[in-house]
Design brief:
The structure is a single chain. The protein has helices at residues 2-17, 124-127, 155-161; strands at 37-41, 52-56, 66-74, 80-83, 86-90, 95-103, 107-114, 132-137, 170-172. It is built from 3 helices and 9 strands, in the order H-E-E-E-E-E-E-E-H-E-H-E. The longest helix has 16 residues, at 2-17. Strands 4-3-8-1-9 form a 5-stranded mixed beta sheet, with no helix packed on it. Helix content is 16%, strand content 31%. It is α+β, with helices and mostly antiparallel strands. The radius of gyration is 25 Å and the shape is globular. A hairpin with a 5-residue loop joins strand 3 and strand 4 (80-83). The protein starts with a helix and ends with a strand.
Length: 173
């Protein structure tokens, strides 16, 4: 009985140590800051576009990538950015409207949503000539994955964490 058990143990050991499947596809060598990017869009929200603008992504995003959208809220000396959604109150706090966004692998959409029945009643400064910064970051950033996540509401912390050069941001129409 001991000989049979020993034989099975040896055969099992050889079978499991000798198994090797085909080599898988090459993996990513780590985070490449060039895969993250930042750009600006300047939508006008009107009844004609349903108070919503959709932009294509080219190239498309990979599974796990993420988009953050920031509204330009102040230009007094230093640009100040606020992460969407941003909620605003009108008519003595009785009405609300917010900027928000959605995205998929090949497009993103920025829109206005609120409690008003007619968004054309919003101030033109709320609907027209807006500037948003769109930051695309990798879902799995390899080398930096063990670093603490930034405060995503802080545009500058995100740019710093993902080593994104925002000194020459391109504007998308």
């Amino acid at each position: 009985m001991k000989k049979i058990f020993a034989l099975f143990a040896i055969v099992g050991l050889l079978a499991f140590t000798g198994c090797e499947g085909p080599e898988g596809p090459p993996g990513q060598d780590g985070y490449n800051a060039q895969d993250s990017e930042v750009f600006e869009v300047g939508p006008d929200f009107t009844a004609a576009n349903g108070y919503s603008m959709t932009y294509p992504l080219n190239p498309v995003m990979l599974s796990g990538d993420n988009i953050l959208v920031y509204e330009l809220v102040s230009t007094g000396g230093v640009d100040t950015w606020a992460l969407l959604p941003q909620v605003y109150y009108f008519n003595n706090g009785l009405e609300t409207a917010q900027y928000n966004y959605t995205f998929s692998y090949n497009q993103f959409r920025i829109f206005i949503k609120g409690s008003l029945a007619d968004y054309s009643q919003l101030p033109s400064s709320f609907r027209l000539g807006k500037t948003f910064r769109v930051v695309i970051i990798l879902g799995d950033d390899g080398v930096n994955a063990k670093k603490a996540k930034p405060d995503y509401s802080d545009y500058n912390a995100v740019i710093e964490r993902y080593n994104i050069d925002d000194s020459n941001v391109k504007k998308i129409d």
